[in-house]
Amino acid sequence: MSAQVWQWSVVETAAAIRDGLITSEEVVLAHVERMHAINPALNAVVVDLSEQAISAARARPGEGEQHSGWQASRRAGDDQDQYRRRGSGKLQRRRRIQG
Question: pTM for the whole thing?
């Protein structure tokens, strides 16, 4: 990957972390550095939570482990709450009955 870390896609970033080429902390630091470099011109960041992001990246379980959060379990039909569209186009939540 020849592009800067902050330019990588989420797929490239996840693969690099999984393969041990980079740590979560390094990814977050690259994004924070970019944000601080470009934000004065954009004035897009209202609340800077970079310290919290860095702390969260440092606290992450060992690199190369499978993520155990919701991303790993989200497959069609796996979640208990399903959504459907009503005639009005609004999403309505319905709970699947366990039986």
Answer: 0.60
